Amino acid sequence: YYGIAKGKNVIIIHLESFQQFSIDQKINGKEVTPFLNSLYHGKDTISFSNFFNEVGQGKTSDAENMLETSTFGLPSGSVFTKYASNTFQAMPAIISQRLGYSTAVFHGNVASFWNRNTVYKSMGYQHFFDASFYDVSGEKSESWGLKDKLLFKDSVAYLEKLQQPFYVKYLTVTNHYPFTLDTVDQDPNFKTSDT
Fold first, then answer.
1. Would you tell me the crossing angle of helices 91-99 and 116-123 to the nearest 10 degrees?
2. Which residue of 12, 123, 138, 153 pairs with 90 in a disulfide if CB–CB is 3.0 to 4.6 A?
3. Does residue 47 fall inside a structural domain?
4. Structural contact between residues 90 and 152, judged by C-beta atoms closer than 8 angstroms
5. Which residue in 81, 74, 96 sits closest to 10, CA to CA?
6. How many domains does the chain have?
7. What is the pLDDT of residues 97-130, one digit of tens each?
8. Residue 106 is part of a domain; what is its CATH number?
9. What digits encode the pLDDT tens for the residues 52-69?
10. For 10-62, what is each residue's pLDDT tens digit?
11. What are phi and psi of 155, to 5 degrees?
């Protein structure tokens, strides 16, 4: 695949608490992740089914660190907490400096969670669109921030203004523990299993 995406926009969708087995999974004859299945199998998608993260006490931040730097987390604590101001050899900085990409992160939680406001700068991200950029009031949010559907929808205005080519990451929260959905977000035609 070397050079296959040269000059193209890169969009990473980092799904919180998501595991590969959900792709193409059906429950009671209905797909669990129909939209993700369409992306995963899309002709313009490069997807990886043999991808393993090694997370420790840094949890999601460890997974982000591995994704961006190809390095493991720490035996105790979080890289994002202990080394937030470190100069990382991370993909956002590399792709920006070497190929002229603009870089951004979209996340519906507060910027200071896991020190992302500091770490993302250290990784070379030029823009961080956190909860302060969105209307997170009332039923628009759940315990970890803005609901994913709204994050994707409301971020389009920012995405359209980024200089191209761009390298962006979406960090989702809706499928984070405790795995609850408001009634308005539930599909009445999808009957889940009792697990």
1. 40
2. 123
3. yes
4. no
5. 96
6. 1
7. 999 999 999 999 988 888 899 999 999 999 999 9
8. 3.40.720.10
9. 667 777 788 888 888 899
10. 999 888 878 888 899 998 888 988 988 998 899 888 777 776 667 777 788 88
11. -85, -15
Residue 1, in any domain of the structure: no
Task: Inform me whether the pLDDT recorded for 179 exceeds 70.
Answer: no
Contact 63, 55 (CB under 8 A): yes
- Cα dihedral 42/43/47/48 (nearest 10): 110
Closest among 124, 139, 136, 172 to 13, alpha carbons compared: 172
Which residue range is the domain that position 158 belongs to?
Answer: 10-185
CB under 8 Å to 110, separation ≥6 — which residues? 130, 131, 132, 145
Mean pLDDT across the chain, nearest whole number?
87
**If you write DSSP's letter for every residue of 72-84 in order, what string do you get?**
---SSS-HHHHST
CA distances from 43 to 8, 37, 46 (A): 15, 12, 8
